[in-house]
Amino acid sequence: PMPPSFSQLPSLKYLNLESNHLIGTVELNPFWKLSNLYFLGFSNNMLSVIDAEDGALPPVLPNIQHLGLASCNLTKLPGVLRYLDIILELDLSSNQIGGSIPGWIWVVWKDTLGKLDLSNNAFTSLEKSSLIPMTHLNFLNLSFNRLQGDIPIPVISLPYGVVALDYSNNGFSSILPNFGRYLNNVVYINL
């Protein structure tokens, strides 16, 4: 089992416990009180990660830049995500999160998000239009969901870098006819 003591280290900046054999339940709320924390990874263990049900946020949130919660038995997006405004990498793959991918993701993290993996969940739609303005996005994986409708096209303004989009194994039915003009830097597309 994962000891709760990790959330009691006030100077902690980097905590990566990914890809081990840890078991049990981890509550996220105590980690949000670690104001120096910028990297938090619980992915690929045998953990169940839960978010605070009461929605209460600590007065100061950490400056989380990387959050890895893949395969953590999540059934909904952690509520605090909406208030973490400098996310660079977010991995929520292989959970049971359903419903719509909220539009605030494309607004709050428009200028910071570089990698987003929401694959292997149960998302059914996107709250935002099919054009998503993202300044620094270089990896977007929405594969193996139940997404329908228009294929989302990120409007990326990176002058360099590799951009990979994986939307495979969904139920999309249409794509913008002029989608190529928005994807100048894309080197990998899997529809």
Explain what the structure shows.
This protein is mostly beta strands and 191 residues long. Helices cover 3% and strands 32% of the residues. The chain is globular, with a radius of gyration of 17 Å. 32% of the residues are buried.
Number of strands: 16
Biggest sheet, in brief? Answer: 8 strands, parallel
Count of alpha and pi helical runs = 1
Determine the strand fraction and express it as a percent band.
Answer: 25-35%
Determine the structural class based on helices, strands and strand pairing: mainly beta
The side-by-side strand order for the widest beta sheet comes to 1-3-5-6-8-11-14-16
User: How much helical structure, as a percent, in the residues?
Assistant: under 10%
Shape: globular
What characteristics describe this protein?
191 residues; mainly beta; two-stranded parallel sheet; 3% helix
Compact overview of the structure:
By secondary structure, this protein is mainly β. The chain contains 1 helix and 16 strands.
Please specify the SSE layout and strand pairing.
Elements: E1 14-16, E2 23-27, E3 39-41, E4 46-50, E5 66-68, E6 89-91, E7 98-101, H1 104-108, E8 115-117, E9 122-126, E10 131-134, E11 139-141, E12 148-150, E13 153-156, E14 163-166, E15 171-174, E16 186-190
Parallel strand pairs: 1-3, 2-4, 3-5, 5-6, 6-8, 7-9, 8-11, 10-13, 11-14, 12-15, 14-16
